[in-house]
From TrEMBL:
Residues engaged in binding Zn(2+): 228, 407, 411, 436
Signal peptide: 1-22
Top enzyme category: hydrolase
GO molecular function terms attached to this record: metalloendopeptidase activity; zinc ion binding
GO biological process: proteolysis
Domain of life the protein comes from: Eukaryota
Protein name, per record: Extracellular metalloproteinase
Cofactor(s) needed by this chain: Zn(2+)
Native species: Phlebiopsis gigantea (strain 11061_1 CR5-6) (White-rot fungus)
Length: 601
């Protein structure tokens, strides 16, 4: 694709945005660029996320420095972005880069007169032959005249404005990606100079990145770092806890956690606190200590008594600690490593930022019937809040429902791996929906135990309802689950949109397992050729390829490209057929289904 085409495409994309905001009947396009939500009591706020241009290149294309064997990843990425976009030196800077097992990734930010543009980002991926395989960009091609780069409103006033609008307190934070002075491109095509900082509320669990106009003093935009889960109330049908506890011996995977789960390189613990996770109640020192020497944590949960008894609380903290660590180890095997912005206290001299293990609050109060994840940039702890559910008496503890815990952890994986560790690239309504879909799909993936492709239901235990918390089971049967790509147009809530994506991924999974079989060791051995192993590789590999605020179409393209990078495209037709079976075929666009596949498939 030529330089000129890239320009045209980007221009057309921004035109669509412009029309979308003036033509209400074309409103569904706004799914991919906007998000309207209640951020704090009474504060309904619409944020703008420019469309990303995204292109994948199959076997790869050359970048300008391909003949220079000593060119670094950063230099190669910069040279490629300069060759595609009309930029002057200093207009693009690399903010993160790393080497994964099937590709190398670099993430860039546009700068105007030395000031970064918060929502103008780009990503470039290279395969093992150093060819470019994916390029995403929301860079501005025609830069509007920027307002002065010198604030007229001082940062203390900006903080006061955001604190009162968002109902929280400023969090001092030195993360360079989410603080300081930045430009923000707004939906009307103009640039604003903003003070950027974080505001949180410990009572409500809210945590925002706020952008306050440094000339007008108005709150202009926010990044909501919290991914919420909402559990719908469904008719209650009595059901016993069906899956019993087991004494699991040495579950840690030393390839992923070289010092085990209770050692961060400096401190060795005998509690539910370690390098990857801290499970606590109320205050972070309120952890569960081993019940016997040598890291034995045996606490028997009694479903007949309230979840808050000491033994039940200990069982909850131990299970949450086990699940978060186990998922750390599994995701690490498939590429969610230190360099890929994962969550660990000590990074054992690998790249990326440490001091960001996941802290898990169990039996969070006040509140019931919920669970959520707060994902912030690499180097800041991930936080899970798990609540009690009051659908039954006694109530049930979401820390004891693994699909809920895995769903929440997966928000951390997808937020960190999309866009280079910033945790700010799943913010549009559509991208937020994809996020919910990946979380359900990951929960499903971890629960398979054979090649059988049963329908999958999430959240059945805590709600005591076999239908769970979604509108339909995930299914290969279109009568059981009729959701298709076009369903997204009528949906305006992230979990509802997520159901469409999770059901598409359920069908991709089914096709891969039917074609390649099932591995019993997929959780610890990513080297297999079986369908469930292939599925998880493509799941994880696609995340760092896709652009900031991806659409369904972008996310699909990233899976197809991930298959080229890792398997030389061996699953191309299988994947296209599975996507096309739910409307996401070759010509799918703007929430219009298409069932076609590439010629030759
Ligand atoms: C590439 O850029 C990143 C982010 O600015 C930086 O941390 C890293 O050190 C750079 N790598 C090289 C080899 O210069
Ligand atoms: C946090 O939210 C609660 C509930 O909305 C509110 O009462 C409290 O004032 C907020 N805290 C701050 C620091 O604004
Ligand atoms: C700490 O845990 C105990 C039970 O072990 C609980 O009663 C107490 O409320 C917790 N403390 C806080 C501050 O939540
Ligand atoms: C856990 O470690 C602490 C601190 O090293 C020690 O005092 C305590 O006895 C240990 N607890 C058990 C049950 O081994
Ligand atoms: C704990 O470890 C010590 C040292 O390895 C060993 O001597 C002891 O038998 C172990 N205790 C248990 C209960 O396994
Ligand atoms: C990390 O590097 C330091 C300094 O080179 C070294 O002392 C330490 O042993 C290394 N740690 C690990 C876990 O490799
Ligand atoms: Ca990290
Ligand atoms: Zn969620």
């Amino acid at each position: 694709m030529s330089f000129r085409d890239a320009l045209t495409l980007i221009y057309v994309a921004s035109l669509c945005v412009h029309f979308a905001s003036s033509l209400p009947w074309h409103g569904s396009v706004r799914h991919s660029t906007h998000r309207r939500r209640e951020l704090a009591k009474g504060l309904i706020f619409e944020t703008y996320h420019p469309i990303s241009f995204f292109e994948t290149f199959g076997p790869g294309v050359d970048h300008p420095l391909f003949k220079r064997s000593d060119a670094t990843l950063n230099e190669s990425a910069l040279s490629f972005v300069h060759s595609k976009l009309d930029l002057k030196p200093g207009d693009a800077l690399v903010h993160a880069s790393y080497e994964g097992s099937s590709a190398r990734y670099a993430y860039l930010r546009q700068h105007i007169q030395g000031i970064p543009v918060a929502n103008a980002v780009a990503n470039v991926a290279f395969n093992k032959d150093s060819k470019v395989v994916a390029f995403g960009s929301s860079f501005l091609q025609q830069v509007p005249k920027p307002p002065s780069g010198i604030p007229t409103i001082d940062v203390q006033n900006a903080i006061k404005t955001a604190e009162s609008a968002l109902g929280g307190r400023h969090v001092p934070d030195n993360h360079p990606d989410s603080s300081g002075i930045q430009y923000v491109l707004q939906g009307d095509g103009t640039l604003a100079l903003t003070h950027v900082f974080q505001v949180s509320n410990e009572t409500t669990g809210a945590w925002f990145e706020a952008f306050v106009d440094a000339h007008s003093g108005k709150l202009l935009s926010v990044t909501d770092y919290v991914a919420h889960a909402t559990y719908r109330a469904l008719p209650i049908q009595k059901q016993d806890l069906t899956e019993g506890f087991e004494d699991i011996v040495d579950p840690e995977d030393m390839a992923s956690s070289p010092l085990g789960w209770h050692n961060d390189g400096k401190t060795v613990s005998n509690t539910t606190a370690g390098n990857n996770a801290l499970a606590y109640k109320g205050v972070q020192t309120n952890v569960t200590t081993e019940s016997q020497d040598n890291l034995t944590f045996i606490y028997t949960q009694d479903t007949a008594t309230v979840p808050t008894t000491t033994a039940n609380l200990d069982a909850a903290r131990v299970n949450a600690f086990y699940v978060v660590n186990k998922m750390h180890d599994v995701a690490y095997r498939y590429g969610f490593t230190e360099a890929a912005f994962n969550f660990q206290t000590d990074n054992f001299n690998h790249s990326g930022r440490g001091n960001d293990r996941i802290i898990v609050s169990v039996q969070t109060t006040p509140g019931t019937d919920n669970a959520y994840f707060t994902a912030q940039p690499d180097g800041v702890n991930g936080q899970i809040h798990l609540y009690l559910f009051d659908y039954t008496s006694p109530g049930r503890d979401s820390a004891l429902e693994n699909d809920i815990v895995v769903h929440e952890i997966t928000h951390g994986i997808t937020n960190r791996m999309t866009g280079g560790g910033t945790a700010s690239c799943l913010q549009s309504l559509e991208a937020g929906g994809l996020g919910e879909g990946w979380s359900d799909a990951m929960a499903e993936w971890t629960e398979h135990s054979s090649a059988d492709i049963a329908d999958y239901v999430l959240g059945a235990y805590v709600t005591n309802n076999p239908a769970g918390v979604r509108t339909h089971p995930y299914s290969t049967n279109t009568a059981t689950n009729p959701l298709r790509y076009s369903s997204v147009a009528a949906l305006d809530e992230v979990h509802a949109i997520g159901e469409v994506w999770a059901n598409i991924l359920h069908n991709v999974y089914a096709a891969l397992v039917q074609a390649h079989g099932y591995s019993q060791t997929a959780l610890t051995d990513p080297s297999g050729t079986e369908g469930n192993v292939v599925f998880m590789h493509l799941f994880i590999d696609a995340l760092p390829l896709q652009p900031c605020n991806p659409t369904f179409v972008n996310a699909r393209d990233a899976w197809i490209q991930a298959d080229v990078n890792r398997y030389a495209g061996a699953n191309k037709c299988l994947l296209w057929k599975a996507f096309a079976s739910r409307g996401l075929g070759v010509s799918a666009a703007d929430y219009a289904d298409d069932s076609s596949v590439p010629t030759g498939c």
